[in-house]
Q: What sequence folds into this?
């Protein structure tokens, strides 16, 4: 018998989930088992999430994509959020994080677990205030831990816990004068609670109790980076790195209790710092899967932050990040709508796929080679079959029909592929 995927792996037991992941990743179950035992792969799979299609998260596997959703006080239609969920899963999202911060969140969370085959994640600290309907300062440490337990009992596969900031962080934030302070929503709530109550971070102080909950249901802990940089000026500063060191310590404590771990990372970060940050995380956190929020490589692109995020995400994944949190055009501006979700997913998928090719993930480039064959042969249906977003590609072509069907309306008879095909076949090349 085993309690968690990590417990099974340490005992040399290959679980059904490991077999599924191995087949998807073109690896042997024994390889997957060994890497889970070492903490380098996590299979986020709550025992109560019965409709889950398991996936592995690790730098040596296909880069996975997370989609953030959830209602707020200003946008509180759960039917629209479910529409986003279905669209996200249809477009290939590997995980859905419910970040709802308004109303009765439990029915939606339970519906996600009952119907969604993707990994489900949450941030329990968001739910604490609205679940108890009490002001932040009136919540107790037990209240926070009980919400973690409730989310585990509801069947979520991973929970983001901001355990890395402590009373010492208050001094650091005050002393080092960050430009953007703390931009993590969960991190800011924990910081504010500590400041108002004078108490230690409950997610740090009672970390062992959280591990017991996670072990019971096989919930993976996503160690949240409360001090992730919210602007380029704060990237790689002492607050970020000091928290990362503490997350490395907490990772070892979790593994000792057979609880799987994902470590969250930046944030906003200049392009030139990303590789070093990925390598530093791998060293400090002993190879635990890294889950990056971007990184966004510039601060000046509201409305286009899915692009700034994809640039940083590709570099991060190429250098060891395992899990990309998508960013939509609505980042910093509004709750994303269905089209924003689509744009964010596509940008992240491009970044993840580009990184997988660079890392030589088995068979990652196969579909690119099939696309090349289809283009060489003017096989438009074959091109749609390979495209990340076939609908958009087909609509663009159909809206600007070419004179001759085999080429496109940009090149027409000047098409290089057409000319080369004809020349190599000994045919005359007609241009006029």
A:
């Amino acid at each position: 018998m085993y309690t968690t995927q990590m417990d099974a792996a340490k005992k040399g037991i290959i679980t059904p989930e490991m077999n599924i992941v191995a087949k998807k990743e073109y690896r042997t179950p024994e390889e997957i088992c060994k890497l889970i035992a070492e903490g380098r792969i996590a299979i986020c799979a709550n025992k109560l999430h019965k409709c889950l299609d398991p996936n592995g998260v690790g730098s040596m596997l296909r880069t996975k994509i997370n989609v953030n959703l959830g209602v707020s006080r200003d946008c509180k239609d759960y039917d629209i959020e479910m529409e986003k969920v279905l669209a996200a899963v249809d477009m290939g999202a590997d995980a859905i994080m419910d970040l709802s911060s308004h109303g009765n969140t439990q029915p939606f969370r339970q519906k996600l677990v009952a119907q969604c085959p993707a990994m489900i994640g949450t941030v329990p600290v968001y739910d604490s205030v609205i679940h108890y309907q009490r002001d932040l300062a009136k919540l107790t440490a037990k209240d926070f831990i009980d919400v973690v337990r409730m989310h585990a009992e509801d069947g979520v596969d991973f929970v983001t816990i901001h355990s890395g900031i402590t009373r010492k962080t208050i001094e650091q934030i005050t002393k080092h004068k960050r430009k953007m302070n703390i931009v993590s929503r969960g991190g800011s709530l924990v910081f504010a609670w500590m400041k108002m109550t004078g108490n230690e971070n409950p997610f740090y102080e009672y970390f062992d109790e959280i591990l017991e909950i996670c072990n019971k249901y096989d919930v993976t802990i996503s160690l949240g980076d409360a001090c992730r940089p919210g602007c380029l000026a704060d990237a790689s500063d002492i607050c970020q790195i000091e928290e990362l060191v503490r997350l490395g310590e907490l990772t070892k404590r979790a593994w000792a209790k057979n609880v799987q771990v994902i470590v969250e990372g930046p944030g906003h970060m200049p392009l030139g710092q990303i590789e070093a940050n990925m390598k530093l995380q791998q060293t400090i956190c002993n190879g635990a899967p890294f889950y990056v929020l971007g990184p966004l490589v510039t601060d000046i692109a509201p409305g286009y932050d899915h692009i700034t995020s994809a640039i940083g995400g590709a570099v991060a994944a190429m250098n060891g990040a395992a899990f990309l949190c998508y960013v939509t055009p609505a980042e910093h501006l509004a709750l994303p709508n269905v089209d924003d979700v689509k744009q964010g997913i596509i940008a992240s998928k491009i970044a993840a796929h580009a990184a997988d090719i660079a890392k030589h993930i088995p068979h990652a480039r196969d579909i690119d080679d099939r696309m090349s064959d289809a283009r060489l042969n003017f096989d438009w249906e074959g091109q749609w079959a390979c495209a990340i977003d076939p609908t958009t590609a087909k609509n663009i072509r159909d809206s600007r029909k070419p004179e001759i069907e085999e080429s496109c309306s940009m090149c027409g008879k000047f098409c290089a592929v057409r000319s080369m095909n004809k020349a190599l076949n000994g045919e005359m090349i007609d241009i006029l």
In short: Strands lie at 42-43, 56-57, 64-69, 95-98, 119-122, 158-161, 220-223, 261-265, 290-292, 323-325. The CA atoms of residues 321 and 346 lie 18 Å apart.
